[in-house]
Specification:
- With 174 residues, the chain is α+β, with helices and mostly antiparallel strands.
- Helix content is 39%, strand content 16%.
- It has seven helices and four strands; from the N terminus they run H-H-E-E-E-H-H-H-E-H-H.
- It has a four-stranded antiparallel sheet with strand order 1-2-3-4.
- A hairpin with a 2-residue loop joins strand 1 and strand 2.
- The longest helix is centred in the C-terminal third of the chain and has 16 residues.
- The chain starts with 28 loop residues before the first helix and ends with a helix.
């Protein structure tokens, strides 16, 4: 006779908001790079559930700021506060980045048109897609990232698609 554990069933996946049933996150080059950083977690069901939460517009009070992302995610049992931290570049590093940008008029022109040039990291020597992060969620799930953090990550990809300058803000310059 084996042991039997009666685990609670997972909450049903939220329905996607109208028009977002097949929403793809990471439409632009930068958005794709952001989503690619999540690929190490891709086998985890929580990432899939997080995409469903993002498609259902469950991420509220979303804010990108210097070195951090904060949001409230509407979960099946209430609202959860999510905080994600990213390492900021120092003032000295930002001075180096700005000098490289000024030396490359084409790069500067694209940035002034609110475009994030694909060659930015090669030209400056700095990457703007974080390779590591810290995250915290007020939900009871022990896993990190949980589905609520995942939902915020996919929402960030969407925001980067619409305003790639959020990557500068995230790393410490607005």
């Amino acid at each position: 006779m084996g042991w039997y554990y009666d685990f609670p069933k997972a909450a049903p996946r939220p329905q996607a908001a109208p028009g977002k049933e097949r929403k793809k996150f990471g439409e632009t080059w930068w958005g794709k790079q952001w989503v690619e950083t999540l690929s190490e977690f891709e086998g985890d069901q929580r990432m899939s559930r997080g995409r469903a939460y993002a498609r259902a517009d469950k991420v509220k009070k979303f804010k990108v700021d210097k070195g951090k992302i904060s949001a409230t995610v509407q979960g099946s049992s209430g609202n959860y506060k999510v905080a994600i931290g990213v390492k900021q570049y120092s003032d000295k590093n930002w001075q180096k980045i700005a000098a490289k940008i000024r030396e490359t008029p084409l790069l500067l022109g694209k940035l002034l048109n609110n475009e994030m040039p694909q060659e930015l990291h090669e030209t400056t020597g700095f990457t703007f897609i974080p390779s590591s992060f810290s995250s915290n969620c007020s939900c009871p799930d022990y896993a990190n990232p949980c589905k609520h953090v995942a939902a915020v990550f996919y929402t960030v990809a969407d925001e980067i698609d619409h305003d790639p300058m959020n990557l500068f803000l995230l790393h410490g310059v607005d």
